[in-house]
Each structure stands twice: as structure tokens, then as C-alpha cells.
Design brief:
transmembrane; membrane; 0% strand; single chain; Amino acid ABC transporter permease; mainly alpha; transmembrane helix; MetI-like fold; transport
Amino acid sequence: MSIIDTTARAKANEDQKSAAADKAWSMPDWGVTAISLIVLIGIWEAAAPFIDPLFGSYPSQIFSSFLVMMESGTLVKAFWQSIQPFFAGYLLAALIGIPAGLLLGRYRVAEAALGIYVTAGYATPLIALVPLLMVWFGLGFAVKMVIIFLLAFFPVCINTWVGVKAVPKTLIEVGTAFCAPQSRIMRQIVLPATLPYIMAGLRLAIGKAVIAMIIAEFLTAISGLGGIIINAANSFRTAEMFVPIICVMIFAVVLDRLVACLERKVAPWQSEIAGEHE
């Protein structure tokens, strides 16, 4: 037996032992997440005696404020006010951003003509445009929807654009060789290959849209969850201020998980590829 064979066999044995150890001590992802969350809450609650109520809060006090706000209906009403412009702006960003990204990535003329504006728009501090948007759209639902749309549009569009550019040219050449029309190449070759990028863009856009939702409620008509945060902060009701912040965080995580589940449905091969690399 050669030295190479001996080394290869020893490496294989080590890999088998490592895999067996990982399997023996394996735990579902949700279990690890739950444990980390419990530890975080426990440490935070243990630090309660050292927290000044004016400048911070702790889980039990925040939960008490949550119950009071739920009982009064304040939190539910504010949440409903916030998610209406959120979903309108986010869905509009997806409906426009995906086709725009496909167009920019697939057609060189479109990329040359419009790509620079998408790049410039992404780099523009859009929050600085809020005063102008308020003049154009007022202080109500429309301006909030537009702000959310503008912040969510670019991650979706740019990710889709990059995804189309990453499609192997050989796949497109095969479609062309079989005389497939451009619409069919787009539908059956480009779009499936770009789906992982599109879903990643949609997930990134969730965070941008949530941030835009709160900023819009800060800077326009004070309402919704952002309104609760502002009013509680101005009155130094710190525990009450934390309630909508945590609700927004949970809302974003839930939406991210839903989009991840959707990705497994529409692009199941991506999950298989990811599993091979774990």
C-alpha cells in the first residue's frame, strides 16, 4: 500500500468520525435559535437591577407594556396602520423591480441606457428626498408607500440584474441553437437560473422596506408603530418604546422565513445545492 493510499484512507476515516460526531450531537436549527434566544433574554433580565428605566428596559417590563397595549388595542391598530403602506410599497417594488432587472441584465441597450440611473438611484440618500416627496404626495398613505417602494426597489432590481448576467452563456447559446424565441429563452432558461438571485433580492428588500416604513412614520404623519416609538420616546416611556421595535423585528424575521420557504418551493434545486455544501 502506498503512502498516498494510506493518507487517503486515514483522511476518509477522520471524515467518517467527524460526520458521526456531528450526527450524534446534531440539533435542529430552530433548537439552536431557541436556546440562543433564551440565553439572551435571561442575561438581559438578569441585568435588570442595573438598568435605569429612563434609558433602558428589560424583558419582563417590556412584556407588561405589551400586554397593556394589546388590551387597549393600541398596538393592533398601529400595526395595521403600518403594514398597509408596507405591503403596498414592497409588492410594487417586486412587481417593477424584477422585470426591470430582467430587462437590464438581458438586453445590452437597456443596460447601457438605464443601468447608470439604477446605480445612481441606489447610491442616492433617498431619505433626503422625503421633504420633496411630502410636497408631491402629501403626508398620508401615498407618501409612505412611495418611500417604502424606493428603498425596496433597488435591492430587488439590482439582484435580478446581477442574476441575469450570471446565467452561463452556454445555456442561452443552446436555446438559440434550437431556434427558441427570445421569450422562451427568457421564460425557460434565464428566469429559472435567476430565481435564487431574485429571492435573495426580495429578502434583502424586506429589511429595507421595514426601515423605510418606520422612517416614513417618523418623518411624515406620525402614526403606526413608528408613531408609538416617537411618542413613547418623547415621554421617556422606554419599555413602551421597545414594544413596537421588537414587533417590527419579529415581523421582519417572519417575512424573511416566508420568502425563504417560497424560495424552496420555486427553486428547490437551490436548497439541494446548499445542502451539498453544508
